[in-house]
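In response to reviewer comment 3 from the previous cycle, which asked for concrete evidence that the modeling workflow produces usable outputs, we include below a single protein chain processed end to end. The sequence was submitted unchanged, and the resulting structure tokens are shown without manual editing.
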Amino acid sequence: MGFTLSGSALLSLIASCKSEVSSGVGLQALEKDNFAFMETLAEIILPKTAESPGAGDVQVSSFIDSFVSKVYDEPAIKQFNDDIAILEKECKAKYGKILVSCDDKEKVEFVKGLESSEYEPAVNIWGNQVFEGSEMPFYKQLKSMILWAYFTSEKVGKEVLTYQQLAPDYQGCVDVTAETRLRSI
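The workflow returned the following structure tokens.
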């Protein structure tokens, strides 16, 4: 009886936290509209499939909101929000509506446009800069954060990523099956 009560209380607490974040109450660094933009963007970049959870399933946007609030100072948080707002304005200029309101085709088209932005990373060899490169566009920085948050989540680590921690005796050309596949966590 006690487990049932505490289990239902826990579920209601989790549900209230989710509704607080989606309504903007529980946000720590991001503005409500920017959070919705990032949530939508993350789902476009990492949608749910039959084999893997989507960005929303592992709460990528909530993690980034928490991370930004703890690591960035106030001017950097403001700049982060401003940069997301600029991406949203680009979407509105192109489609006449915000990213959340776009249909699936428009969302994918918008992200493809962001992906095509020119960026040449700096090249270093043994600590010596060979090529200066160009400044990384904000979208690429945000995408990098989204990917980082996704691939470091516990759910993805346990259900998607696999690696073998210790090398066993070498066996070449072995098929990967449910029995031979090892989880990363």
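DSSP finds seven helices and two strands in the chain. We consider this sufficient to address the reviewer's concern, and the full set will be provided in the supplementary archive.
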